[in-house]
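seq as requested:
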Amino acid sequence: MPVQSIAMLASPLRPLLLGLLLTAAAVFWAAPTRAAGVLAGTEIANTAQLSYTIGASSVTEPSNTVRLTVAEILDVVVTLQSANVTVSPGATGQVLVYRVTNTGNGVEPFLLQLTTALGGDDFDPTPATPSIYIDTDASGTLTPADTPYVPGSNDPSLNADAFVTILVVSDIPGALANGARGSAQLSADARTGTGVPGTAFAGQGTGGTDAVVGATGAAASVSGSYLVADVLVAAVKSAAVFDQFGGARPVPGATIRYQIVVIATGTGTATAAQFNDTTPANTTYVPASLRLNGATLTDAADADAGSFVTTPASGVRVALGDLSQASGPQTIVFDVTIN
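struct tokens:
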């Protein structure tokens, strides 16, 4: 019997064919799993197959193909990457580090905004001019290579699951008490739109698809803090090399003498200061070489301020105690040899 279409089959066969539809196989194309699922603009195609027998002939008939295009989900997360930044009253150019991540499934630009007039803190940091930078060189700190953010001009456009590091820069008012805390909040909104989850923007998503607001409302914000401290402690490290030939070349067997000078400035006191320095890779600590302000310290954990430790990593440790400007420079010296 020649192959015929379903429409041409005799009516007694139609109930049988309707039953066979229950066993039709569906064919799908799937994209990799992402934060918000399949990428926006991906086509999902579905074609069923119907197989049956007429007499001695096997027949396979495809259904029409149903095609759908995945819409864009608008979602974003903002996270703080830096701890509290210790500042002094009147300090300028103080940087907090944030990360903006596109947790949606399409390419989306984000509008950024800084807010420093927040409740619950002790002072309002003063936004610098400019106050928001894109960390162009991925250094995690403000450098001349970083790009000032201009709203509406260079809003960061992120692929699905991509992130951008943002630097927020503020100046600190003068005459603040020790321990005062000021907050700075970075907000990111999907430029397509925000709203309650499920809000739709017809035809405004990636590739002309619809855009639908996700669980975050397509908006997120987080605050970082500046902490005023009236004492600042800094360490400056230097190294001198002594090789076994009487020279100063860093060859295997040579000794590296590290010197670290710790200085406290300001009117307050840094309590329980402790110095830690891990033995550099490819070197070995020289026993009994640890000194503080010219006095030799033992390597054991005993009554003096210093020790050589092996956990969690090998290195030297010196308890400096309470430090103030009146303490003066604290000079730590120790030696290692190059393996």
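The longest strand covers residues 231-242.
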